[in-house]
Amino acid sequence: MSVAVYDAGTIGGESSWAGAGMLAPGGETDSVSEFARSLVASNALYPSFVEELTAESGAPIDFRRCGALEFTDTEEEWRSLVARAEIQRQLGIRSEIRRPGELFYPDDAVVDPRDVVRALRIACQRLGVEIREGEPVWALRAERGAILDPRPAAFAILAAGAWSSSIPVSVDGEAQQLVRSVPVRGHLVSYDLEKDAAGPVLRKGATYIVQRSNGLTIGGSTHEHVGFDRSVNPVIVADIERRLARLLPRLASTPRASAWLGFRPFTENGEAQTGRLRSSPVYLAYGHYRNGILLAPWIGKTLAEVIASSQTGSISPAAYR
Ligand code: GLY
Q1: Whose CA is nearest to atom 1 of ligand 1?
Q2: Which residue owns the Cα nearest ligand 1 atom 3?
Q3: CA-CA distance, 2 to 321, in Å (whole number)?
Q4: pTM, whole model, 2 decimals?
Q5: What is the pLDDT at residue 197?
Q6: Residue 50, SS3?
Q7: Pocket of ligand 1 (CB under 6 A)
């Protein structure tokens, strides 16, 4: 197939650039659902995804199956974490009690999403994909089984993250009601530490610490419904730093290297949109919220299979919760 990628900004320049890269079915699932199964499936695909992408691009990707340690403070939090781990076992998510209050997830991992995007870009260019940056798609129009706008094509995939539903889609002259995409802002901070200082991913509730192989240590986060406000809020940053220092006490005396934010692509009904828009030539890949980086190989593989075999219907109308 010949493929063109349109991006209003730069490829992977929004949430893929901002994300910490925690690949954590263990931290993201508390029920047995299709969505949860796709997280586990994508985590299993990651090593071969990284290997293939590195081979195709020649670009290194920082990927470590370092596991994650999850902490609790109270007896009640601990009981609920152990109960969650029981449910997760039905999905094949392994965990082990390190000591009361601490659960270890050996299969959770970390990837640098900026490495993934860089490698994807090179691999795509080598395969002849036309990359059109700084070119917003103002409308997606399909007529009689093919795409007409923004250019004639057999099909199109709408994957514009938190902006997805702001692109009007019409099929045979009828405006389509897409599930509304909603940005959920998250702040992150980083510190320069020596390699291996943080060990596995550290988590407690909404607070987490992830370390890159070069020592860069990233901590987050927040869940803010504030639209697309890009101003980094120093009060929020200070609160995250306090939470991080409780997880890794040496951070209390380590100067912060930087702070930034990103817009998680959530949806108004909490359902990830992955699959075909009715029987049209429009496919959807948005609303993966906290798990877009983790789900990338699964979404790519599954959508490619569905498109290649021209099946109809949605492939995973799965709710986030
Ligand atoms: N995946 C972690 C987050 O969205 O904060």
Answers
A1: 290
A2: 290
A3: 36
A4: 0.94
A5: 83
A6: helix
A7: 20, 22, 186, 220-221, 264, 290
